[in-house]
Design goal:
Strand order of the largest sheet: 2-3-1-4
CATH superfamily of the largest domain: Lrp/AsnC effector binding domain/regulation of amino acid metabolism (RAM) domain
Structural class: alpha+beta
Number of domains: 2
CATH class of the largest domain: Alpha Beta
CATH architecture of the largest domain: 2-Layer Sandwich
Helix content: 25-40%
Number of strands: 4
Distance between the termini: 28 Å
Oligomer: single chain
Shape: elongated
Number of helices: 6
């Protein structure tokens, strides 16, 4: 069986759903010049093939008071697979960690951490990150302002 490959209509669906994940199927069909039944079937297929994940609501973080954004860069004490796995699994447990990337170069990992304040961030580092026996060093980069933020993939 040949693997599924999205066509231009599927890409159109994904682009529109990135703008509004709750866009009615009728509106999607109208915008794409299709009828609702094929759009419904395509969306089911895109979900089944995991091109489309869950629909979520993006919150205005400033309105809810989570305005402190930090990007700690972390070096581990070694690069054993077991150590890497333990660190990754630990990061999955922390709701403050919005994103976690395994890197090449000078640092092993970069996190995106969002908290209400510098004091909360300091506590997070002291009580959750620096206490891990396999964490060697942490260098924090703090966001002064948000210049651009998007969740939509550009389909270049």
């Amino acid at each position: 069986m040949e693997p599924f490959k999205p066509d231009q209509t599927d890409i159109g669906i994904m682009k529109l759903l990135q703008e509004d994940g709750r866009m009615p199927y009728k509106e999607l069909a109208d915008k794409l010049g299709k009828t609702i039944n094929p759009i419904t079937e395509r969306i089911k297929k895109l979900k089944a093939e995991e091109y489309i994940g869950p629909t979520v609501t993006l919150l205005n973080l400033q309105k809810i008071g989570a305005t402190f954004i930090a990007f700690p860069h972390i070096n581990l004490t070694n690069h054993l697979e077991q150590t890497m796995t333990m660190f990754k699994e630990k990061m999955l447990e922390y709701p403050e960690v919005m994103e976690c990337y395994h890197l090449t170069g000078h640092y092993d990992f970069m996190l995106k951490v969002i908290l209400p304040s510098m004091a909360h961030y300091n506590t997070f580092l002291k009580e959750k990150i620096s206490v891990l026996p396999y964490v060697g060093s942490i260098q924090s980069f703090l966001a002064l302002s948000e210049v651009k933020k998007t969740t939509a993939y550009p389909f270049l």
